[in-house]
Amino acid sequence: MRIDIITVLPEMLEPFTTQSILGRAQKKGLAEIHVHNLRDYTTDKHRRVDDYPFGGFAGMVMQCQPIDDCIAALKAERDYDEIIYTSPDGEQFSQPMANELSLKKNIIILCGHYKGIDHRIREHLITREVSIGDYVLTGGELAAAVMADAIVRVLPGAIGDEQSALSDCFQDNMLSAPVYTRPADYKGWLVPDVLLSGHEAKIKEWELNQMIERTRKLRPDLLNE
Q1: Distance CA 49, CA 105 (A)
Q2: Is the dihedral of CA 90, 65, 79, 22 positive or negative?
Q3: Residue 53 · residue 115 · CB < 8 Å
Q4: How far apart are CA 8 and CA 38, in angstroms?
Q5: Domain 172-222: which CATH class?
Q6: What is the full DSSP assignment across 46-57?
Q7: Where are the alpha helices (DSSP H) in 51-118?
Q8: What does the pLDDT profile of the chain (225 residues) look like in tens digits?
Q9: Judging by beta carbons within 10 Å of its beta carbon (0-12, 13-18, 19+), is residue 86 exposed, middle or buried?
Q10: What does the alpha-carbon distance between residue 171 and residue 82 come to, in Å, rounded to a whole number?
Q11: What whole-number distance in Å separates Cα of residue 185 and Cα of residue 181?
Q12: Where are the alpha helices (DSSP H) in the chain?
């Protein structure tokens, strides 16, 4: 799959997209992540991409022209399944959404900045608006990085143990069970006996019970009971 990220701060994203799972997935040919500097598409001689809002409101607003021209240039090269705008008032990002987006071929993520983008872009070009939480960030770059990481890591082959991704938090709309490693006894802090038993069925039963118990305690909103 291919992810194109449009931003006014490419230097924030370029190191992140080449490291860890994102970097390895690209080296394997499983994903392509391209970061585009919005300032390269402005017609302003000072490379400005923002202006004052009509109506006398506070802050600055990202202009239509550079965003429209950047998206048009990308769409001239390929079709896109989604053009996503990172916005605090968007649809809440979730693991099911990451799974869904991982099945797409090409997506664009437009990073918001300042007081946001001219609303006409949202009306005419954006297909989906996404928020990573009920708070406001300085810009959408962190949100785009979070989304790209969550999407790419579930691509088949992106991580060495595919079963690990399938057992992550939220995959079954539940939190993960506790995990332990050696030594089995550390300062008298013991690993549950069932995990040392080698009894696969009992371990699976313990895992499911722990997932349900932790979800009920910590995130009861996830359980459909």
Answers
A1: 29
A2: negative
A3: yes
A4: 5
A5: mainly alpha
A6: T---EEPPTTS-
A7: 64-75, 95-101
A8: 999 999 999 999 989 999 999 999 999 999 999 999 999 999 999 999 999 999 999 999 999 999 999 999 999 999 999 999 999 999 999 999 999 999 999 999 999 998 999 999 999 999 999 999 999 899 999 999 999 999 999 999 998 765 555 556 666 788 989 999 999 999 999 999 999 999 999 999 999 999 999 999 999 988 875
A9: buried
A10: 22
A11: 10
A12: 10-17, 20-27, 64-75, 95-101, 119-124, 141-152, 162-166, 193-196, 200-218
126: three-class secondary structure by DSSP: coil
- C-alpha 109/C-alpha 172 separation (Å) is 26
Q: Which amino acid is at 136?
A: V
Q: Where are the domains of the chain?
A: 2-152, 172-222
What dotted CATH number matches 2-152? 3.40.1280.10
Distance CA 144, CA 142 (A): 5
Strand-pair category, 189-190 with 185-186: antiparallel
Q: What is the pTM of this model?
A: 0.87
